[in-house]
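User: Can you help me understand a structure? I only have the sequence.
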Amino acid sequence: MKRLLDLYQHLRRERIAERVRALQELVPSVYKTDRAVMLDEIVDYGKFLRLQVKPNVAGNGQDVSPTASPASDYEDNA
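Assistant: Let's start by predicting it. Here is the structure, written out as tokens:
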């Protein structure tokens, strides 16, 4: 039984590691070793992206979308 549990835990850790690597590929400059800090940065980046696609129109019909990134760390400098 313990061996089965060990196998399950190993597979679970592998799936988590795969997903972390996938997130690192999607989010620019998020290669931290501390997963908690990395996940915080990924959440912040997701919020930033949501603001970029959310329609921001004032009552008078003018676009008030932010032009500058509130998280300039996430912009690609290449």
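Now, to help you interpret it: The chain has a mean pLDDT of 76. The CA atoms of residues 32 and 56 lie 33 Å apart. Let me know which part you'd like to focus on.
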